[in-house]
Amino acid sequence: MVVFRFHHGPPIDFLVIIFLFISLPLLCLGIRSFPTSEVIISDDLSRFTEAPEYRNGEHCRSGTVHVAMTLDSEYLRGSIAAVHSALRHTSCRKTFSSTSLPPNSIRRVYIFREDSVINLISSSIRVALENPLNYARNYLGDMLDPSINRVIYLDSDVVLVDDIQKLWNITFQNHRVIGAPEYCHANFTNYFTDIFWSDPVLNRAFGSKKVRSPCYFNTGVMVMDLRKWREGNYRRKIENWMEIQRKKRIYELGSLPPFLLVFAGDIEPIDHRWNQHGLGGDNVKGSCRKLHSGPVSLLHWSGKGKPWVRYDEKRPCPLDHVWKPYDLYRDSVDQIQSQPLDFIQSVVVF
């Protein structure tokens, strides 16, 4: 049991649930592995420079926005850049000067248990997609306080260039559980194996959609109605497909296909500007890509290539320069290699 003492608050049991407040939003962590001392956290966060001071804008309205993200040693730099971009562009941030995760804002930690999902994960086209944290979004309804009825889930490889409250305020129609930008002209054939398409019972998951044809959506940006999620036991529905995958190998990707099988064709469509995805290139080469046509509120480096890695390797793609202004990391590549990050792997909600 590790206990940390921070300014502006009582002693904190780091293994117990705590909340972290960053200005308007609520921030919380679900820890996957635990640091052994205060020094580890201090050393890791000391590698990030302090962000500018931000104040509330004139259009700020009271309220709380819950945003869930994941943190681990490889994606910590991206997560901090994402948080920084969200604070920079929202109108409600109080008076806030940010390092990565301000110690005086920590109150509780939500623990994410890797063993909840580890036995359900099958091999994927890319090893990184097998990380249990990719599946943490499935358990937000169980992990978060029952009073939290809505959350925005964001991958760690995003930056916002618009006010996140606009995304938060979308309206769900009818019974829909999640909202996301969708793509109804996508070819689903490539997302599932011949075993899936040749099984009339399994592929009925798409054929039985009565509202309209199934649509692709990227699970890296979702608004989730957790009340409906819990009521419909959607965590279990996703796990059912993962169990089938373990037996029959019906897809090659990681955590995305089960969501497509459960929700495709029945999600709340959000403007495409809120997920300009694929900027990390494909899952093998991670080549440079351009933006989709249309306006942009959120850029998403889904795919193999990550902007912080390409910067360290001195081969950034053109769009990586959009990500760089939000990067608060200040150590050199040599320092990273000689002192590898041993940070917590967690689920963050801010």
Mind explaining what this structure looks like?
With 350 residues, the chain is α+β, with helices and mostly antiparallel strands. It has a single domain, classed as Spore Coat Polysaccharide Biosynthesis Protein SpsA, Chain A, CATH 3.90.550. The protein has 12 helices and 16 strands. It has helices at 38-45, 76-89, 140-143, 164-168, 194-197, 204-207, 226-231, 234-248, 256-263, 307-312, 320-323, 333-338; strands spanning 3-4, 12-13, 19-21, 26-33, 53-54, 67-71, 96-97, 150-154, 158-160, 178-180, 182-183, 216-217, 221-225, 268-269, 298-300, 345-349. The strands form 5 sheets. Strands 3-4-16-6-8-13-10-14 form an 8-stranded mixed sheet. A two-stranded antiparallel ribbon has the order 1-2. The longest helix is centred in the C-terminal third of the chain and has 15 residues, at 234-248.
Topology (SSEs and partners):
Layout: E1 3-4, E2 12-13, E3 19-21, E4 26-33, H1 38-45, E5 53-54, E6 67-71, H2 76-89, E7 96-97, H3 140-143, E8 150-154, E9 158-160, H4 164-168, E10 178-180, E11 182-183, H5 194-197, H6 204-207, E12 216-217, E13 221-225, H7 226-231, H8 234-248, H9 256-263, E14 268-269, E15 298-300, H10 307-312, H11 320-323, H12 333-338, E16 345-349
Helix pairs in contact: 8-9
